[in-house]
Design goal:
There is one protein chain. With 202 residues, the chain is of the alpha/beta class. The protein contains 7 helices and 9 strands, in the order E-E-H-E-H-E-E-H-H-E-H-E-H-E-E-H. The termini are far apart. 22% of the residues are buried.
Length: 202
């Protein structure tokens, strides 16, 4: 295993807080995601946990003192309920097990979890790739809701129709390079597709 390396100070500026970025270890970024508070939306691996348990996984609220610490289950359930209710996520209850939910509900809970811990940016990598038409529409509506609340949402998607439905700006990537940075309202699907395929507009 390679040792964690510490980067030198003066790497740039956090655009969300207008503060400088000093020395920070890769380990801190990887474990805490605290530098700019990104959170990546992904599927749940612990299907036998409840909605609230998944939302607070790794960040459980506890009371008492070592070695007598207890989970604050009621508090976490209440906060999970407030979050999913505020985002109009349709799940039976925070105590429901994730394995009993549909694919769209699971992804919606993953997004709700991301908004709980990501104060500035939520990164979504193909958030609807494995979902049906109805569930995709629900997740897209949730993305729009987050956008309207002022949260920056970065969606990585190969579905141009979806990109145009949920975005304000489009960053076109081809072969690992940024081809264009477009305002969605000022471009067309044909132009974006040409940039993806040829690296240039029609």
């Amino acid at each position: 295993n390679m040792p964690w390396r510490r980067r030198p100070s003066g790497l740039g500026t956090n655009a969300f807080t207008s503060s400088g970025i000093g020395a920070v270890s890769v380990q801190r970024i990887a474990s805490k995601m605290a530098l700019v508070k990104f959170w990546t939306v992904s599927g749940f691996s612990l299907m036998n946990l409840s909605v609230a348990q998944n939302m607070f996984l790794g960040r459980e609220e506890v009371s008492g003192f070592w070695p007598f610490k207890f989970l604050k289950t009621r508090s976490m359930n209440q906060k999970a309920f407030e979050t999913i209710n505020g985002l109009s996520v349709n799940v039976p209850s925070p105590q429901a097990f994730v394995e009993d939910l549909s694919g769209g509900q699971r992804q919606a809970i993953a997004i709700a979890r991301a908004t709980t811990w990501g104060n500035y940016v939520v990164l979504m990598d193909e958030p609807t790739a494995a979902l049906g038409v109805t569930e995709t529409a629900r997740v897209e509506q949730l993305i729009v809701t987050l956008r309207e609340r002022g949260l920056c949402v970065v969606v990585v998607s190969h579905d141009l129709g979806q990109v145009f439905r949920v975005s304000d700006r489009i960053a076109v990537m081809r072969q690992g390079r940024l081809v264009a940075n477009l305002v969605t309202a000022d471009t067309t699907g044909d132009a974006a597709a040409a940039m993806l395929n040829c690296g240039a507009a029609l």
